[in-house]
Amino acid sequence: MTSEQLRASEAERAHESEFESLLQPYGVLLKEINIIRELGSGSTGLVQVAAYKDKLVCVKKGHKPYSLKSYKMEASVLFKMKGAGGVPLLYAAASDYPFIVMEYVRGRTLDNDITRMYTLGARYVVDLFHKLGSSLNCLHAAGYVHNDLKVDNIIIENTTKAVRIIDMGFSCRIGDVGYPENPNMDGAKKMHMYWSFSHFAPEVFFGLASTPAGDVFSLGRMLEEIRNYMTRKGVIRDWPMGLRLMEANMVHVLPEKRPSLVTIIITCRSYVQSFSRQIEQEVQESLNEQSSAEGSEVLEEEG
After folding, report:
1. Where is the Protein kinase domain (predicted)?
2. Entry pTM
3. Could you tell me the residue range of the domain that residue 231 belongs to?
4. pLDDT higher for 165 or 285?
């Protein structure tokens, strides 16, 4: 083991030790929680808004104790990220039950924001994906992948308009398995289920090692969903062909054929800049036309 690997290993052990010291018994933690209202529920757990130590927080509780391992992994990721990349802050977690207390992010999900996008156009979309890619890059740099990126796991803050990534339930270290394969499910049923969860990269859904390329696939699915919505609304005129080609490559079945996240960030940034120049040009042309019209009116009055 090299000195660099040794330092990384020691840092990881220190992180795990610090994280374990944060965990509390479920019964003790529950006494400090005052539930306010329910946010939503799914197959694995319930999410609620609550008050905790003078903070408005988000509480995530698993339906069954067997999900304790995945909840601990989610809490560990939140703890290590410490808010970087727009990931919610971790406040507390139970040691003996799937229960996490985290930052409550105020805003609207991307799922709700899609209905506004057809009025805002492609510039808004590429700017949003530039921010989202940059946030996701922080997660990858820390050694983790999300594995469950979809429109209702992205929040746009009300005040700052920052892009926040939530629900780290399938997140894991790069190279680990984030979505364990079900050995009791036959091939046909598995394929049918996959098409119901098509935002998952194929390699992630079928229990292979997770890599940043899996998150790129999910980003591509989101971009595809937004483009399809805008197409149905008939407002796809300013959608660049290059963006459409990048989207197609992002959802390639082979991970190695997908563009890197850095390439996606750079591409989106270049489109944002291009749209900005286009808007500036249109504004200038409008001002020139207005100035020309005012000049003609002055000449007519003098005549």
Report:
1. 33-303
2. 0.83
3. 107-281
4. 165
